[in-house]
Design a protein that fits this description.
By secondary structure, this protein is an alpha/beta fold. 50% of the residues lie in helices and 10% in strands. It is elongated and about 70 Å long.
Length: 272
Amino acid sequence: GATHSAGDRYDEPKCHPKTRKAVLSNIKSWIDSNNKATKIMWLHGPAGAGKSAIAQTTAEDCHSEGNLAASFFLSRFVEGRNKKGGLVATIAFQLCVSIPQIKEYVIKQIEKNPSIFQSNIETQMQSLVFEPFSLLNKEVPSNAYPRLIIIDGLDECEIRKDQAGIVEAIAKAISMDNTSQLCVFLTSRPEVEIRQTFNEGNISLMCTRLALDDTFNPDKDIKLFVQSCFHSLKHCHVLGQMLVHWPNEEGIDLIVQKSSGQFIYASTVVHY
């Protein structure tokens, strides 16, 4: 499964407690705003910077608050999650679960066009996701409908032109109905094709960008993460009581320094 709670994504990465507060707060403020200037947010950063952990934490938090409409976590190493093929169908199914009232509108679209799942991604995104939501909201208006869609790891889609195609499909669907309350949170590495797509005129105006860079002081969060992991290790290990002064402050600072803002490096060190 590709959703945030799928069983085969057990032990998926998520933000360590008390870390990433600034970036998570920034994302939450955008999600909770009722007067968004943009309906798309793009979180980008290098490999290992923690994008998927942030997406997972955001998905879990929004799900618990009743604000998550759907999620899809791409992975280049998992069949079914490394192509765009099942993306819209998975999102549409989740919409029917998170917003039961929308089901009849989705079914009508499929009955009207039984071959919809063979259509291009722009047609699918418009017909099965954005149009049903808009029709429901016009006939049964409510601010209580979950409205956030999360798509993590655009760069994990193995066909490069499809990475841009996903963004273009979402942007086109949003531009066709400015009243839609659906918003989309995307994450990826800043690959050339993806970056160029977000730089296109209309799309650039529809998107809020968030870079995982030194602005969010990753070293502070990484140090907190490393200290917490070593504390847990000493607490659980049979020889833990003998490791009172291990590791020393210099050792922790060295790990933080070598991490260069990448959580994956620190995580690898403390786990192995």
